[in-house]
Design a protein that fits this description.
UDP-N-acetylmuramoyl-L-alanine:D-glutamate ligase, Protein-Tyrosine Phosphatase, Chain A, six-stranded mixed sheet, 11 helices, 37% helix, 23% strand
Length: 324
């Protein structure tokens, strides 16, 4: 990247990378902590070990660079804990509704983007982005607060925020004429809850959600996802994600274990048929959320990898049913 002219790099560092010391040898200018929710417990075993793996990354940065900048979401339980541990020994700024440094005051999500107000350094300013969802407001605040603390001009950051473009598979609106079809990568309880709550603010009809859970991964999150879907959606279509070596029927049963049969439920193992059925049943003002794979263009079944794109499949059936 350096040889090709890159001057700045922002990278996601996974808990696996920190724990396995794969990033040791790199020099970081700082780090951002967004949140910590249940995922990867097939590797870390429990949330405390997961948190400690994340903290290893921040400890490593500080050890190598005493001037490093950190931005931490204090609305998150583990973020607030990390902030308390670092605030007296590092150049750290907090962000979030509970923050007194970069405070999110108001949040609004609309189909065309998000609008929010922030208090920073004694001033209030309004921000707009084409990115959608409350979670993206938090992501923008993470980057904005970090760069502001790093010394980047505030007016430049405000202009840059307005220029951000939606990312494929992250609250991607596939169709928005008579009803909405949204493709999102949400594959954890927290992510599914966030996207469903954001859509709740937009919907005028029913919220139909299509999702499954990956095979050979943390099984304890499956019933939690089922419970969340039943609480926040109006119609649930359970299907396959990347079942890998597991039987998709067993995965669906795991998800259903967290549900109480309070909402209409369809079980369609074939993911394409599940998307087809959701598109077919959608009426004016409904929202169809296809969750779990987002930007991925494949599905792993057994030892085989097949081409599969949620957005393309949705468009196929929108055309078939003359809804596009």
């Amino acid at each position: 990247m350096l040889l090709k002219g890159a001057k700045y790099v922002s990278m996601e560092v996974s808990s696996h990378a920190a724990h396995q010391m794969r990033i040791y040898g790199l020099n970081f200018e700082g780090g951002i902590f967004t949140n910590l929710t249940q995922d990867h417990l097939d590797y870390h075993k429990d949330m405390e070990s997961y948190f400690k793996a994340k903290k290893m990354f921040f400890d490593y940065i500080l050890e190598k660079n005493k001037k490093a900048v950190f931005s931490i979401n204090v609305d998150d339980f583990y973020g607030e804990r990390l902030y308390r541990q670092l605030k007296n020994i590092a150049n750290v700024i907090s962000y979030g509704r509970k923050s007194e440094e970069f405070k999110i005051i108001d949040m609004q999500t609309q189909p065309e983007g998000c609008f929010f107000t922030v208090s920073f350094q004694g001033k209030r300013f309004n921000l707009y982005s084409k990115l959608r969802g409350d979670f993206n407001i938090y992501n923008i605040s993470a980057a904005f607060s970090f760069l502001a603390r790093y010394g980047i001009d505030i007016e430049f950051l405000k202009e840059a925020t307005a220029k951000l473009k939606p990312i494929r598979g992250r609250f991607e609106i596939v169709y928005s004429k008579d009803f909405l079809v949204v493709n999102d990568y949400a594959h954890t309880p927290d992510a599914l809850e966030n996207i469903l709550k954001s859509i709740q603010k937009l919907k005028r009809g029913r919220l139909i959600v299509v999702f499954g859970a990956g095979g050979d991964r943390d099984k304890t999150k499956r019933p939690k996802m089922g419970k969340i879907a039943e609480e926040l959606a109006d119609v649930i279509v359970l299907t396959s994600d990347n079942p890998r070596s597991e039987d998709p029927k067993d995965i669906i049963e795991n998800i259903k274990a967290g549900m109480e049969n309070k909402k209409p439920l369809l079980e369609i193992i074939d993911r394409e048929q599940a998307i087809k059925e959701a598109i077919k049943m959608a009426k004016e003002n409904d929202v169809v959320l296809i969750a779990g794979k987002g930007h991925e263009t494949y599905q792993i079944i057994g030892d085989n990898i097949y081409h599969f794109d949620d957005s393309d499949v949705a468009k196929k059936y929108l055309k078939m049913f003359n809804k596009i």
